[in-house]
């Protein structure tokens, strides 16, 4: 399907797509800028955001609505990562506000249980068979060895995947950058910790990676990952301090579970993602200053040689490349 769409866009363009010029908004931008910096600059007007939740992006739209016209230096995907109770939400919200980006909260299965009319489908649990009832994060933390745990973790993955596609659709349709509180790429650290603790069977563990690996090749990795490093004893202290009912006394949140998460974050996730994305790591044992993080972000040069694997996912050479991806991601959202 993707190749058919690419051929169609190419034919409409009349040749191999419109080559982006030196004067284009994209392709020659080097760094993210804060809202304060942007306010002091005179920038050319951009097309209004495309309502991708209600309108599809078709071949006909491509002729009159060029995706690159909305892109600027902040048309990027940022992810704030870290262990449980590290302070990711606060940092992600502040970064989004300071960089004038869209903030997306951590995706969790509970989001799926509220329908479009605001009704909480979990209210139906008492009249449903056990295997068809809801099972989300609070349920897992209370009873990690429940028979629905494997289904829960795979559905968590799908929920994070759906949110990440939505984030990409937002960037391509509006030009506004996105800051996510955790993302689908790091979801496996939970699966690894669950498997280590015996909450996932070997069969469920293998099935999880089957679900994970196939769709990931269709995505674009984030431009920047910001990791808040908090040692395990401090994480446990933070969990107790914030006092969320289903976290307190949970058999899941212990030294071993959190240590496995930390190991896979450091040795697998950050190591692999740093080959493709920019990475900032902060000691967040004590809450740091987000303004310093913003300054560090503004200093990053996001331009790389075309042969470099860094940010290769976002190396677009013509308008057709943008159009194909915009069509793909918005098609999943509708």
CATH superfamily: P-loop containing nucleotide triphosphate hydrolases
Q: What does the largest sheet look like?
A: 5 strands, parallel
| SSE run | HHHEHEHHEHHEHHEHH
**Class based on secondary structure composition and strand pairing:** alpha/beta
Total number of strands: 5
> How helix-rich are the residues, as a percent range?
40-55%
Output the number of helix runs.
12
Morphology: globular
Question: Which architecture name does CATH use?
Answer: 3-Layer(aba) Sandwich
Distance between the termini: 17 Å
Percent of residues in beta strands: 5-15%
What is the level 1 CATH name?
Answer: Alpha Beta
Rg, please?
Answer: 21 Å
- The overall average pLDDT, rounded, is 91
State the CATH topology: Rossmann fold
Number of discrete domains = 1
